[in-house]
Amino acid sequence: MKNRAENKGKNKITELHIGGAFMSGLIRETEQPGMTLETCFRDYLQSLLDCDPLSASKAIDGALNRFRPEEIVEMIITPALYKLGELWSRGEAALTQVCAAAIITDRAMDKLSPYIKSQRQVRCKAVIGSLDSHGFGKNIVIRFLKAGGIEVTDLGIGVSPKTFVDVALESKADVILVSALMFHTSLLVGEIRSLLEKRGLKIPLIVGGAPFSFDENLYRRVGADAMCRNMGQLVVTIEELVEK
Amino acid sequence: MNSYERVMTTLSHRETDRVPVFLFLTVHGAKELSLELKEYFSKAEYIVEGQLRMVKRYGHDCVYPFFYGAKEFEAFGGDVVFYRDGPPNTGKPLIQDNNDIDMLKVPRSEESLVLREPLKAIELLAGKVKGQIPIISAVIAPFSLPAMLMGFERWLNLLLFGEEELREKLLRLTRDFCVSWANAQLDAGADAIGFFDPLATSDMLTREQFLRFDFELARETISKIKGPVAYAGAGGRFQHIIDLLPKTGAAAVVISSKDDLGSVKRNVGEKINIFGNLNNIEMVDWTPEKAEEEVKRCIEQGAKGGGYIVADQHGELPYYVEDRVLKRIVDAVGRFGHE
């Protein structure tokens, strides 16, 4: 994993997604009358919950007057996305809000990218794909991961177990992420595991999707290393498994 | 009391000889007939034979000639992808950009070649079990069908950020198709229709969004369907809108394993019938003892005073749910379900 040692303790998503506690630390460093990173974070999060792109755009414009674009990505956009993912996994937000957040965030990133001078450091490489025709959850995950500094190769939908393994090998991926919305397609994860074992590969395998959330033991039965319900959990799990 | 009488009596909140139980077996018939799923779904006669054999084997209280969710997508002209061990899935979305909505050809239920076999299956079953065993079929709700036709993300983009006029146009098309398809199935002999609206569940939509986008649409659609409708979330939770569902005109709601059956019963049990709550995904790994325990829990939480039918949360039991588990579910209803 590239630059992991340098990143350690400096820019960890685990700290970012804690939200409140970490943000209060930021306020002391950057507090200015009327606008802090925390107030921007809250405004931006609220605009995501309201599915309101105009408010989101306003929040980003306001933040651009005071903070560096990199800070806006790291301290406002990314934690807001993680917070929303966390709320969704607890049943306190709906997928429409998560979807709207992804679309709104795409627009925000389009706005910010011309101002971001240096590329963010790549924390690790992942390949991701869906075993069936459902790509929506996967597409949202990709946006979140990219915002978190993870390089992602998107294999698309209806991906065969062999393709997962072939591409993971070619791209020297640190982790394989598999999405399935249907129970019978979730069972294909077992074939990915078998192929990895046959080739002597120890790439971590993380799964997500409805069947895994309805049966918390299913991921083990199909041979995955972990199952994640939200973005914060996914990034932490990736870090843990990749560091092993 | 036969199954039909038992179910109808329960639905009118009156006492029956025992709590009814629905096994929504869409793919097990293929196993029984030793057919690949693609072949099984190619002929009404196979579905009918599969359903009759299933009901004979397990003794549950419905036949379920529903083919698969993607059938409607297929009727609109889409391709489906078949699997060895589960229901087919939709292929490439028909609507690739919003302009395609104008080109969409809405199938006529009675004339569509794709819908001919499902209608025939209902007719054949009606000829054999009408009045003895309820014939349950299903439609995709007009609010959820666009997710199949154009892909989930594109539909939510249009819904949340797109042109209202275009969205309304699409929803009018799906509403009219839904009404026509549901009524064609009722005319063919179905006794009740599952109204699958997974996009209305709390995992997908907030209560405010349901009220804004879906409630009136569902109410209007259901009012035009000439038979009882069960609101179904395909496993998703309804607790955020459970008080609104009786107002849509639905006669029943199929609830998630993640919904609290006891709470739903207390809150709306007198206004709407409740089906479901068994976890169809975990069921694959259940022992017969676990199946019995779950059925007992459901009956204790939901059956008092009628208006509850033991069933899975989704309306579709996975291929790998074992025979001994299915048998024990029905046996357990016989054991614990006497009111």
For the terminal residues of chain A, how far apart are their CA atoms? 11 Å
Largest interface: A-B, 31 and 36 residues
- Class per helix and strand makeup of chain A: alpha/beta
Contiguous uncertain segments of 5+ residues of chain B = none
- The percent range for strand residues of chain B is 5-15%
User: What is the strand arrangement across the widest sheet of chain A?
Assistant: 2-1-3-4-5
What is the mean predicted local confidence, pLDDT of chain A?
81
Rg of chain A over CA atoms, rounded to whole Å, is 18 Å
**Category by helix and strand content of chain B:** alpha/beta
Give me the side-by-side strand order of the main sheet of chain B.
Answer: 3-4-5-6-7-8
Low-confidence residue ranges of chain A: 1-32
Number of helices of chain B: 14
Q: Could you characterize the architecture of this molecule?
A:
The complex is a heterodimer of chains A (244) and B (339). Chain A has 244 residues and is α/β, with parallel strands linked by helices. Helix content of chain A is 58%, strand content 9%. Chain A is built from 14 helices and five strands. In chain A, strand 1, helix 8 and strand 2 (150-154) form a beta-alpha-beta unit. Chain A is elongated. Chain B has 339 residues and is of the alpha/beta class. In chain B, the strands form two sheets. Chain B has a six-stranded parallel sheet with strand order 3-4-5-6-7-8, with helices on both faces. Chain B has a two-stranded antiparallel ribbon with strand order 1-2. The two termini of chain B are 14 Å apart. The model of chain B has no long low-confidence stretch (mean pLDDT 95). Chains A and B meet through helix 7, helix 10 and helix 12 of A and strand 2 and helix 9 of B.
